[in-house]
Amino acid sequence: MAKTLSIFPAPEEALNQQRTRTRLFMLLSPGMLWLLLFFVLPLGVLVSLSFYAFIDTQITNILTTENYEKIFTEAVYGKIFLRSFMIAVLVTTVTLLIGYPVAHFIARKSHASRDVLLLALIIPFWTSVVIRTYAWKILLGNSGLINYLLRELGLADQPIQFLYSTPAVVIGLVHVFLPFMIMPLYASLEKLDASFEEAAMDLGASRTRTFLRVTLPLTLPGVAMGCLLVFVLSLGSFLTPDLLGGTNSLMISNVIQEQFLQSGNWPLGGAMSVILLLVSLIFIFVYNRLFDFDEEAGA
User: For 204, phi and psi rounded to 5 degrees?
Assistant: First the structure.
């Protein structure tokens, strides 16, 4: 007797599928609720707020696109966005140049030494960013350690104005975000078999050629992930630029903070926040397409 095929699952199989879906829903519910309450809902409020008109220091119920038009038509906002982008790119570049040798040094040490070095790398995370930034404010001040050393070495007659400048902001951001570059690089370098580098050098390749043709290509996922993390975090940073840069090196996050906390122009601050978020998402999307993080994660 021929067996009858059915597109409908057997009752017991259907019951198991229902139980699996229920269990999966129960497991995901806390995370979904958290995202809904603390990400989707505030983001929705922010987006809707950006379309309200701000008239006579009051937020009105009039819907308008004036806030977005103001950002795109007034040159000052374009300059601040461009400065924020350039500082983020500069911080990313400097952290990569410093972080890659450090990550390579740690990855080639013995396991015991790696643990100690990684602990030393993580320890700064235990200190508040505010305290670390104020430490740089003391070091870079006119009577700080750096100016003192420059005068003692005869390299400067008068104190050099480091504070409240773009280099001070870059130094502070590099210090804060350097571990975010080193950790992904270390993860890639730790997976890389050192015998590949040894084989290339045994075949006559110089250290530079070995790095460019073997080490760097095989660790590009770590480079890409580190650059992505540092760039996005730098672009949205406001505390370090506020303390070390002052009004001369404002970044877009400082302007957003000013609109929300001082000017009370929440619609304009909301519009800037939405544009900053879109810029970050576009950057992440392009980066993801170039380096295919999804495929790397699934590999």
Answer: 105, 0
Residue 230: which of 44, 87, 20 has the closest Cα? 87
Q: Which helix (H) or strand (E) holds 84?
A: helix 75-107
Beta-ladder partners of 58: 55
- Backbone phi, then psi, for 7, in 5-degree steps? -80, -10
Distance CA 208, CA 180 (A): 25
pLDDT score for 299: 46
pLDDT of residue 7: 59
Core vs surface per residue 283-293: b (16+ CB within 10 A) or e: beeebeeebeb
Specify burial of residue 178 (Cβ count, 10 A radius: 0-12, 13-18, 19+): buried
pLDDT of residue 96: 96
As a dihedral over the C-alpha atoms of residue 78, residue 81, residue 87, residue 90, rounded to 10 degrees, the angle is -80
Whether 171 contacts 94, CB under 8 Å? no
Q: Which residues pair with 59 in a beta bridge?
A: 54
**pLDDT tens profile 210-221:** 989 999 999 988
* Residues pairing with 63 in the sheet: 52
CA 109, CA 277: separation in Å to the nearest integer? 40
What are the DSSP calls for 139-164, one per residue?
A: HHSTTSHHHHHHHHTTS-SS----SS
Neighbours of 167 (CB within 10 A): 14
Check if the beta carbon of residue 277 is closer than 8 Å to that of residue 50.
no
Single-letter residue type at 153: L
- Rounded Cα distance between 212 and 199, Å, is 14
β-bridge partners, 230: none
Q: Which pTM does this prediction carry?
A: 0.82
Q: Which two tokens stand for residue 290?
A: 């170039």
Least confident piece of the model among 5-19, 146-160, 237-251: 5-19
Identify whether the C-beta of residue 52 lies closer than 8 Å to the C-beta of residue 60.
yes
